[in-house]
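Agenda item 2: coenzyme A complex prediction
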Amino acid sequence: MTAAGEPAADRPDECSSGAPDPEPMRWWDIEQVAELELVLFPTDSPWTPAMFWSELAAGHHYVVIRDAAGRVDGYAGLSRSGDDAEVQTIGVRPGRQGQGLGRALLQNLIGAAGNRRILLDVRTDNAAALALYRSEGFACIGVRRRYYQPSGADAFTMSRGAGCSGKVATERSGTASTAGTIGTTETKENR
Ligand SMILES: CC(C)(COP(=O)(O)OP(=O)(O)OC[C@H]1O[C@@H](n2cnc3c(N)ncnc32)[C@H](O)[C@@H]1OP(=O)(O)O)[C@@H](O)C(=O)NCCC(=O)NCCS
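Presented output:
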């Protein structure tokens, strides 16, 4: 494999939104991604390099956004099984947040899901992620009490139905009170 010295033609292009295009995550990205996990999810069992190795080995869809120097500024992952897909994780380097990278990553996952329903879990207090997901057509379908450990934070489970392309403009955070409760048995939290 050619980890270093990628030709300029292989570097991310600038798309119309200004966010570079996501590219497939490679094994040489894992160290940087795991370091970002420690920064982004310090209280919620950040994923280890071994977990990302396992995800790539399983053939799941993982992408990164790199800057021109190859530094990973954002990453995201999706698993697909049958009619369902699941967002496994998504994160953007703190200094690069609010610049469209998270949306570019999520839209890449949505494209990779095809016609499948997409599920994800998100902390109920994660306002930025909730706003992003809602704006891309996800809606809350349940609550997982104390889903994240060791913080004990609750999670919303959200779903984006097959063929759903419209934005959910009217949904508010108060949706939590109407969502059902889902079990808390998972050992590896999805983000
Ligand atoms: C959630 C996260 C991935 C969003 O990435 P980002 O690059 O900052 O988001 P974008 O710049 O693409 O913004 C997309 C939308 O997210 C929402 N958003 C982003 N930052 C926000 C903030 N601080 N407050 C409220 N909404 C916010 C907005 O709806 C925004 O759309 P807009 O720009 O049209 O208003 C990023 O904040 C992050 O990495 N957070 C820490 C890790 C995390 O919580 N991951 C999600 C786990 S479920």
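Discussion summary: The helical segments are 30-40, 49-57, 101-113, 127-135.
Owner for follow-up: CH.
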